[in-house]
Design a protein that fits this description.
Strand 3 and strand 4 form a beta hairpin. The chain is mostly helical. Strands 2-3-4 form a 3-stranded antiparallel β-sheet. The chain has a two-stranded antiparallel ribbon with strand order 1-5. The chain has 3 domains: about 100 residues, Orthogonal Bundle (Arc Repressor Mutant, subunit A), CATH 1.10.10.10; about 45 residues; about 40 residues. It is built from 10 helices and 5 strands.
């Protein structure tokens, strides 16, 4: 195989990219920035190594575009965004895009963890234990998780459990033991569950 590969045709794709050809062989597509940055024209010659670099530039750009699209709908943790990008891109391109988003301040695990924890605590009424597990599954560092949960400055979740008993579990209080089991599975502490039931004068046999 020749060291130099000649670009014999450049065609516009339906998605707005520039498809590069060498003879009858399709090489890859690039956006306008990569095209002009590398002075790619019909008749240009490149070594395989140079084409590999150009291809990486193109894939990095596409990964960045995809990251922008994902972040336009909602915040993502670094790991969550990386994992989604891996569905379409190689690890090196996914890392490049995530690092770029982080440099631009569009990915911030501390801010994401704060927002996610507030939603899970105040809207979904989840326990601190469940929130810790969820944030950890999204790749949030343990120190960040501990710092975020500490910021709520709550010693217990008795009030949250009380509200759940008055709403979600109101029709099930005739079987308090089953309610306790459900709350325990959600990560709430038994002592706080018992206190909430006592506050509502729900008769609970020692569980």
């Amino acid at each position: 195989m020749l060291n130099n590969i000649k670009i014999t045709d450049i065609t516009r794709t339906k998605k707005g990219f520039n498809a590069l050809f060498a003879g009858e062989e399709f090489l890859f597509s690039v956006d306008d920035v990569v095209l002009y940055k590398n002075n790619i024209q019909i008749g240009s010659c490149f070594t395989q190594q140079e084409l590999a670099c150009i291809s990486k530039q193109s894939l990095d750009t596409k990964a960045v575009d995809k990251a922008y699209a994902l972040l336009s709908s909602r915040m993502h943790s670094r790991k969550e965004l990386y994992d989604k990008l891996l569905r379409k891109f190689e690890p090196e391109n996914a890392r490049y895009a995530v690092n770029k988003m982080e440099e631009l301040g569009l990915v911030d695990d501390a801010a994401f963890a704060q927002m996610k924890a507030e939603y899970l605590l105040n809207v979904k009424k989840q326990s601190f234990s469940a929130i810790k597990m969820k944030l950890a599954s999204l790749g949030i560092d343990k120190d960040i998780i501990d710092s975020v949960l500490l910021s709520f400055e709550l010693d217990n979740q008795t009030d949250d459990i009380t509200r759940l008993l008055q709403t979600k579990y109101s029709s099930k209080l005739s079987q308090p033991e089953k309610v306790v089991a459900s709350l325990l599975r959600k990560g709430f502490k038994y002592g706080e569950i018992k206190q909430a039931m006592n506050n509502l004068q729900i008769d609970l046999q020692e569980y």
